[in-house]
Specification:
By secondary structure, the chain is mainly α. Helix 1 runs antiparallel to helix 6 and helix 9 packs across helix 10. The longest helix has 26 residues. The radius of gyration is 23 Å and the shape is elongated.
């Protein structure tokens, strides 16, 4: 992660830092969010890969049929674990049903957003609000922060994994970016962030009590907040 990444996020939000917080804290928080995000990513299954998976599924079924015929003729066949065919075919079927684009969007929403919003709150000691100024076609502080964070993550990924085919499949080639281009445009980003922000605002004491009925968005935000506070901001 570039040394100035934290300062760029601060500049994008144009908000005063919380007491004791530095640009290095913001940068380290972004690094931590990046590690968590990458750990949860899976390789997108594109159309070509789905065709290969279907070929593998057909070959698997043909192999099973041939082995059954040979066994019926009294010829010795390889001994395979019980239920191997169903397990293997079910696994291939599940992979074939996956959609790379949808999974990437889902990942951004469920994994990246809560960490970036929690990072905003810890950096500036204020609960994020999702403002988009329609008249000016301009993001508010939190949206600007999230977009800049996505840019910084894309740049860092491109440098770290430029020669890796696997991470290129996960994160893009670094030319157009991956996380950044996954973000909804203009006011759509505000609407995408609102469920997490609303969950945080509706339960102002939810870091101190166990409600037992919190939403998925609230749970994701709380978890991200607690991890960042413990791993990055405890010395702030």
């Amino acid at each position: 992660m570039p040394a100035d990444a934290g300062q760029k996020l601060i500049d994008a939000a144009d908000r005063p830092l919380a007491d004791g917080v530095t640009a290095n804290h913001v940068r380290d928080g972004l690094c931590f969010a990046a590690k968590v995000s990458v750990a949860a990513l899976r390789i997108p299954v594109k159309a070509e890969a789905r065709r290969k998976l279907e070929s593998a599924r057909n070959a698997l079924a043909k192999y099973d049929m041939i082995m059954r015929d040979l066994d019926a003729e009294g010829l010795p066949v390889p001994s395979l674990p019980y239920g191997w065919f169903k397990q293997a075919s079910d696994h291939l079927d599940a992979l074939s049903r996956e959609s790379g684009g949808k999974r990437r969007t889902y990942h951004v929403r469920t994994h990246v957003y809560p960490y970036l919003l929690a990072l905003y709150e810890l950096s500036f000691a204020e609960v994020p609000t999702a403002y988009y100024y329609d008249a000016e076609q301009k993001d508010g502080p939190a949206l600007s922060f999230v977009r800049q964070a996505a840019l910084e993550l894309d740049k860092a990924y491109a440098k770290m994994f430029a020669r890796s085919r696997v991470t290129s499949a996960l994160l893009g080639d670094g030319q157009q970016g991956t996380l950044f281009v996954s973000l909804p445009e203009r006011d759509s980003l505000r609407r995408a962030l609102e469920p997490f922000i609303k969950a945080r605002a509706d339960i102002p004491t939810w870091f101190n009590v166990d409600t037992g009925t919190e939403s998925d968005e609230a749970s994701a935000y709380r978890y991200a907040h607690n991890l960042l506070k413990f791993r990055v901001f405890q010395t702030a």
